Amino acid sequence: MKKDFFTSSIGIIVIGAVIGAIAAWLSVMGNPANMGICIACFTRDLAGALGLHRAATVQYIRPELIGLVIGATISALISKEFVPKGGSSPIIRFCLGFFAMIGALVFLGCPWRTLLRVAGGDINGIFGLIGIIIGGGIGVFFWKQNFSLGQPKAYKNKLVGFLPLVIAVILLILLLKQTKFSEGGPIFFSESGPGSMKAPIAIALIASIVIGFVAQKSRFCTVGGLRDGIFMKDFHMTKGVIAFIVAAFIVNIATSRFNLSMENQPIAHTNILWNTVSMILTGLAFTLGAGCPGRQMIQSAEGNMDSFIFVIGMLVGAGFAHNFNLASSTAGPTVYGMGAVILGLIFCVIIGFTMKENTAS
Description:
Elements lengths: L8 H20 L10 H11 L13 H16 L6 E2 L3 H18 L3 H9 L4 H21 L8 E2 L8 H15 L23 H18 L3 H10 L4 H19 L17 H17 L4 H9 L3 H19 L11 H20 L7
Antiparallel strand pairs: 1-2
């Protein structure tokens, strides 16, 4: 890949700061506190809007998800990096996405929201961050043992790669029209709770298009940045992650939204053990799947159907998490959620040991 500003050392710092600042600012604009952009939480809201779960407080078609896909697709087409491909271990990728979502909803946030929670003064976020780092480290161990999900193949039919964009446009139409397909049926929109807290559609859409564009250009990845800096001594992406936190922190300070404490944080619980363990699962699943949730969305927009399968696994996981009482609340994790995290860790460890370069298909 050609070296340019976006992939330079200064570039990744600027882009990390831009993403972090916009993410924090979207909370000022109306999104939930410390949740300006959370791919896991917003995918959960989308699952609720589509009726995959019926938790009334978390149902909304988030324009941020739509904007990420649109922005990244535009960027990939301009830079000629739009390459439709896929077919490497799709079922395993689906399951990794599923369990990554379970871990995120037991913690109450994906890696992006983990950084935002830390930048907002939520001490619980630090334990989630530790969990991501541990999970990433376990993933690196498997990589060094020749872990592989196989190599994707280029599709002859290039139109396949536009599927995420087509779905994003359909979702945007459904959002704008507030479509109801039947009495008492989807599309659902929360009237209270986190799902009802939202920035104006136009602002959220434009902001996320910008994020999608620059994230695609820079290959920005939160899990990759934490993992590479600590375990591989490659601090390129780490600089972007640090810039993300610093910029979000500055926005929070400037808008009087910083609150250093462990108790009474927005949409968070204080169970240190499960804040950590659940994010070990999430960090490991994203590392084995080769990208944080934002990166998976961006790669989907580039035509990578393997990443798109991972995202679909996240969507289904969100539905399961609320239908089967796996997701945590501010009161803490559920017994079922704890069990699902352990099951996910077992799955990831088995996959890590058994999927090797010479046996992957």
